[in-house]
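Homework help thread (please don't just give me the answer)

Our assignment gives two proteins as sequence + structure token strings and asks us to describe the second one. The first is just a warm-up. Here they are:
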Amino acid sequence: MTVTQLKLDGKYKVQVDLDGEYAFFLYQKELRRLCFKEGDELSDQLVEDIYQLILLPRAKDKALSLLKYGNRTTKELSQRLEQAGYPAMIIRQVLGFLKEYRFLDDKAYVQSYIELHGQKKSRMQMQQELGRKGIPKEMFEQAWEERPEEMEEEALKALMQKRMRTKGPVTKENFQKHYAFFARKGYPSSMIIGLLSEYRDREDFI
């Protein structure tokens, strides 16, 4: 493989292009140790050594450092490593390592997410947010079925009570407006109607 470009990226990093395409980045001290320059031919063995002996350990350290600050999904961590300049092959190896040793577990992430947000957000809101994090719908649905059944109703009750403190009680005149607000949040229609009926001003509704 031919080194077609060595481009300084910031103060310490050097972008390495092989055969006209981005391959990886090295720190300047690593490049000095390897002693190659633009136009040099790199053997397949040397490139493999760079990947396995330099890039892979560094990418593992980067991933573990990111996980210290909070759990992430596979997609989130993959994106962060890609943004940091690691090639796809290295990212796949790092993700495999993390999953093998349970540092990365999307199913556990979903379960924790539902436990944390299940009393604040609707099923639809959580599914959409987790979808943006790369969680498949099927994985969310499975975790959702394992949750305590009353969790979503408790979340809706808390949201209704908060809304009534600012918007006033539920009446015949504003029943539909309240219903539309909670429906947009993704709560089931039957649950919304049932709880709104409980909170409704009975005298006003007669």
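The one we have to describe:
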Amino acid sequence: MRKYCFLLLLTYFGIITTAPAQLDIRGAWLRVQHASSPVKTVALFGDRVFMESEVDTATHHIVFAGGGTYTLHGDTLDGQFLYQMGDETMQPASFQLVLKGNDEELSFTTPDGETQRWKRIDNGQGAYAGTWRIVQHQQNGQLRDIPQTGDRKTLKLLTGTRFQWAAVNIATGQVFATGGGTYSVSNGQYTEHIEFFSRDSTRAGMSLPFTDEIKGDLWYHKGKTTKGDPNFEVWKRVEE
């Protein structure tokens, strides 16, 4: 008992320290900007995949969009951008950030010396949370398979409340199109509330309801596109 109490005292006075708890950054994060800035920057993190969007809320113009993979060891995040909007010749760009804060608020200094602060939006939990890849799409009234080999793919990352999708070429880093916003689920209906869409910024503010069902690792949803055309898609959960 004396030995146990002595160890408690050593820990209390800082002579013995315990390892810091592993941060869990899965979910959605909002960058804290100056109050006058119209730019909204959101980062979504899955288990090992991330996507980021930077959007001018006044014009709905996409300032930046990209994504890739990451690992987290203690407070150190090692990331790699695999694709970025507007750069067709980009090579994978590795970066390392030392995170400060907790599971609700974080700050870090970028490699170019900029200090950023972020606040959590959600914790990345829910039936839809994770990374999905489209495997079938309706075309001319028929559901057709989408090739799963090669470097081109369309991915969608969902957290507890937000989503972002991107059609990309992993080999070149090119982003063909991207969009995102928030989503809600009510009475068996999944609805996407669009905040940005690279092909047509006027679609921001639209809500697209889908009847949907998740069966195993497949997600079926049926509704309409932003143009009002019938849309039936099948997505498969990606093991990160």
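TA reply:
I won't write it for you, but here's a hint about the kind of observation we're looking for: The two ends are 46 Å apart (CA to CA).
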